[in-house]
Structures are given as structure tokens and as C-alpha cells.
Amino acid sequence: MEAPIIELKGLTKCYRSLRAVDDLDLTINKGEIFGLLGPNGAGKSTTILMLLGLTEPTSGVATVCGFNATKNPIPVKQKVGYMPDNIGFYNNMTALENLVYVGRLNGIAEAEVKERAREMLEEVGLSGAMNKRTATFSRGMKQRLGLADVLIKQPEVIILDEPTLGIDPSGVKDFLALIKQLSRQQGLTVLLSSHHLHQVQQVCDRVGIFVGGKLLAEGNIDTLAGNLFAREPFVVEVTVQNPVPPTLETDLLAIETVKKVLVNDHLLQISGSTGCTPDLVRFLVQKGMHITGVQQRSYGLDEIYERYFETNLNENSSSEKSSGLFQRSFFRKRK
Amino acid sequence: MKNPAVYFKGLFSGNVSSRSTKVGDRPFSVMVRKEVADHIRSWRFIILLVLMLLTFLGSMYVSLSNISKAVGNAEDPDSLFLYLKLLTITDNSLPPFHIFVGFLGPLLGIGLGFDAVNAEQNNGTLIRLLAQPVYRDNLLLAKFTGALIVISVLFLSLGLLMIGGGLIITGVRIEPQEFLRILCFIVLTIVYVGFWLNLSILLSVVFKQAATSALTAIGIWLFFTVFYQMIMSLVIKAVLPDPALLSPDEVTGYNNTIMTFLRLVPSQLYADGTTTLLMPSVRSLGPLSMEQMSGAIPTPLSLRESLLIVWPQLCGLLAATLLCFALAYQRFMRREIRN
């Protein structure tokens, strides 16, 4: 297999006492679309800045396209197109001028830079606003211009920080489709960070879940689900009409296949081994419960995401008791 | 944005060779070009330009209407330098041009530099710019060079306008020495404004808000033009003994100390420099003793001698400029640039 295009080893960034990025190891291969998922303030942007050599890591090495991003940022920046999350343009210049400026900075020959900028603006659907000042641009237009800005330098790697922020849903769909197409046709490597898991789910080959500066999980969505829910592979949710007697929980736990019971008012969440649903229903009916609904829970990215972020939130509010388990079990698996 | 990837064919794979491989100086010149264009198009510069032009025209008008009187004055050893006279004489209704520049030059420098870095950061353009293959220090240097080019062109054209106008109006031939002196004056002016420019760029790196850095720069300017002299005279009165009780030698010594402290102010350096350059008969910037004066004929100095007198002033201004630049560089190179 060829060398990975992005390789992070033990990357750490501290802001005073805060560890924004904590001992991050990550490899991304050529042609991959990698999604960096995490809540706000998880350290996604900091990681990206370190990849571009714009921020110095406290320790660790970031290698992009074979270059050390901290010590040798210029060749890295030549090959990487980066779109920041709060993208800004020179307001007193037109879209075309902004783009031509970036083209020139990237060493595109003077003869072709205008032509290419014009082409790029057409591609992203801004040909009508080409000669308008960017001060008048809407958020979505700026985002498109940002993509043109990234593509004009003909990058090998595209890094997009929250690229879908502020675009309407159909725009997001187009945008992501475009990114996917580009990646497939030109073999571009794409790293995109987001907190919108559904969007990431649509396009990414692999995702990394990034919370509190740590990469909690990495892999495609199936692997993630498998990893996370190996411990409790199966959950049945039973809704009952009458109040739940307090003894029911212990009775349920007495059943061999049941591992965990959560009682939430009229909702019983029962974890157990696969295929225990009929037994459970039978048992509950015998106990005189009026069942109004039974649902087997399946796991998508939604649950994965929620689970991890919940873990993080609970940890922050220092009620580690139940949720810390997830993390610990997870770490054991990764290592 | 429907099905657009077809268009990208060949854009990514092929013509990489068309890119220039040499990176470093080309992005820098592109950045300087953009900076100059930005300045010229901005309202701010147009206003400053109008201000400078008005000063220039006003002082030229005053000096032209008094030129015959000044040149006719046989007691003045400088009376033969018509063009230098144009820059320096006045009937006291308006200060001469070089004094005006000493006062307004800082405003020009501050106006062109106070939001150089923080405005880019607040707009979110800084991070986008630095994600391109450019060195970080090139940005600072480009900001400085761009504004300096604009300033140089402005003062050079004003100077040449003055010479040309003088030629047409008076018809007197310009001496080579005069021309060189005026050129040196222009260079000194550019260095002086360059110092203030660099100071304001430094402040734009230090402060996140453009308004804060502008106010601080103006504060420093006001302090040096108004308050520093007042504080100095207060301190002198409080600390130094009464000159009536001292021997002449001691008075000279104290005067030298006082001048040294006054020369910490850039505008004082500039005033000293311009006076020497534009008035060839000025032989020293400090007090001269009677022995030094005895036997001296009141004739103008040669350009070389005037330059020798100005040299420390010029070096002082350059050193202050460099210091500001180094500080700005040091602050900017390692700082967080996200907005």
C-alpha cells in the first residue's frame, strides 16, 4: 500500500492548561474522504490548523504529502486546499478579483489565471455574480466562492472546515455530491470536519469521532457501530400503559438473556442478547403489563454520535458513573 | 452546481508544469501589488492625499508669494538656493512645507497602517491568505512595502512638482546641489513616514481591534508632538540647577543632555534633519561654543557636510523603524491567526 497522504503521530496542542488536541494518531490514505466528527470545541479546527502548519503543535508530528507540516509548510500549502469555517473575502474586491489574487499567489501563470478563475466561478455556480463585490455575498455564495478558492490551486488534498454551515439543504446536497465526485474522479483526498453527522454519513468513506481533543473512534460507520454496541448488541424498547412496579426491574434482570434494564416512566429499555424480544413480551404480559409498543432498536450514525457525545457531556458534568464505562470499554478496543 | 465535475477534467491532473516552481518572491510581489492597489482605491488614502496636497499647495503659494523678498535678502547666506527657499520660507501665515510634513506625516503613516493585520484577521481573510503557499513574514513585509511605495511615489511626485512648478514660474536654473538636497529631503521624509507606518503596523499586530490600534497610534503621536516637550521642560525645571548659577561650560553640557532627550522624539529627529538639509548654512544642531564659531564664515555648507550632520538623525529614524518591524515580526510569527 502506498504511503498515507496525511499522517498524524502523537499530535498534541495545549493552550495553557487546556489540552485542545490530545495525543492524536491518525492516517488518511490517498483518495479517501475522511470525516472528522465532533461537537463544537472538540479540537477539530486546531487539528486542521496544525495540518497546514498554521499552528505549532506542542508535541507530535503532522506529515502531509510527505512533508512535515510544521517545519516545511510551504510545499504542504501548495498541495492542500483549505477552506476555513468562517471564510472571509476582501470586501472591496469582486469575486473574480479575489479568486485571481489567490491564483496568483499560487503561482498560476499570469496569462491563464483570469481564465481559470472564470472557469472555477462557473463551476460553483457563481458566474452571474462574478463581478459583484463579495461584501454583497450571502453566506452560501461565500461558501461556494470558498470552494472555487480551494479548487483553483489544483490541490491534491482538500481540507474543509465545517463546509456545510450556512448552506440550505439542497445546496448542501449539491456541495457534497460535488466533493464526492471530485474525490472519485481526480483521486483527491478530502478531509472534512463537521458536527452534522447526516451530511458526513452521505459522503465519507471513514469517519473519526473527535471529542475533547481525543479521537474516540475511527473507521467506517459499520465498524463503528460494531465496536460500540458489541457490549450491548441488542436493545428492545417496550412502552407500557400502566405504571411500572418497582420489582419488575429485578424480575427482568433475573432472566438469563437480559443484561440491563432502564426504566423511564412508561418506557422500558431492555438490553439483552439477540432474539429475546418474544420471550420478553411474553414475560411482561404474564406480569400483567399492558404493552402498547415494542421496538427493537437498530444503530445508525445518529446513535453512535449521540452515545459518544453524551459520554463527553456527562464527563464534563462529572457524573462519570455510567457513561465513563463506554469510554473505557472503547479505549480497550482501540488499543 | 449540477454535475459539474465533468468540467474539472484535466484541471487537476495535467498542467501542473505551468506553475512556477519558484516560490517565495513571486507571491511577495503579488501581495505588494495588491496592497498598493488597495491603498490607491481606498477612500482613506484619497482623503490623506487631498490633505497632503492642500498642505503642499498652501505652503507653496505662501512661499512663492514671498520668494522675491527672500532671494533679495543679501544677508542670508542661503539666499541663492531658490528652490530650497521655496520649501522653507513663509510669511508666518502658514508653516513651511517641511514643518507641515513633520506634523502630518505621522498621520499619513498611521492612516495607511493601523489596520494592516487586525482588519484581515477580523474579516477572516488572514487565515485564507496564510493557507496559500506564502511565508508568514512576507505578509508583514508586503504590507509595509506596499504602503511605503505609495508614500514614496506621493512625496517624490510632490517634490518633482515643486521643482517643475518653480522652474516654470521663476525660470531660474536649479543647481545640482539643490536637486540632490531636495531628493535627500524626500528620502528623509519617506523614512520618517515609514517609521510611523511601521509603528502602526506593529500596533495592528498587537491589538485585535482596528479602532484600538488607531487610537493608540494617534495617542503616541500626540504624546510626542504635544506632551513630551511639556514633560521635558517640567523635568528640566525640577531636576536641573538654575542656569544663572552655572559656568558656560556646564550650561553647554546640560544643553547637550537636554537635546539628547529631546531627540528621542522622531519628529525632533526629522525636524533636525530637514533643517540641515534645506538650510545649507546650518552648521550644527546643538549649541556651538564661541571657539567653534570664531573664524567661521557664514557660508552655506556643502551637501556632503550637511549629510554628515544629518547622518545620526537618519540612522536614529531607521533604527526606530527597524525596531518596530522586528517587534511586529516577533509578535506575528508565532501567534494564533484564527478569528
UniProtKB/TrEMBL annotation, chain A:
Transmembrane segments: none annotated. GO terms for molecular function: ATP binding; ATP hydrolysis activity. The keyword ATP-binding applies. It comes from the Bacteria. Keywords: ATP-binding, Nucleotide-binding, Transport. InterPro entries: AAA+_ATPase (IPR003593), ABC_transporter-like_ATP-bd (IPR003439), P-loop_NTPase (IPR027417). Residues 6-237 form the ABC transporter domain. SUPFAM superfamilies: P-loop containing nucleoside triphosphate hydrolases. This is ABC-2 type transport system ATP-binding protein. It comes from Niabella drilacis (strain DSM 25811 / CCM 8410 / CCUG 62505 / LMG 26954 / E90).
TrEMBL record, chain B:
It comes from the Bacteria. Keywords: Membrane, Transmembrane, Transmembrane helix. GO terms for cellular component: plasma membrane. Signal peptide: none annotated. One of its GO terms (molecular function) is ABC-type transporter activity. The keyword Transmembrane applies. Pfam families: ABC2_membrane_2. The chain crosses the membrane at residues 43-64, 97-119, 140-168, 180-207, 214-236, 308-329. This is ABC-2 type transport system permease protein. It comes from Niabella drilacis (strain DSM 25811 / CCM 8410 / CCUG 62505 / LMG 26954 / E90).
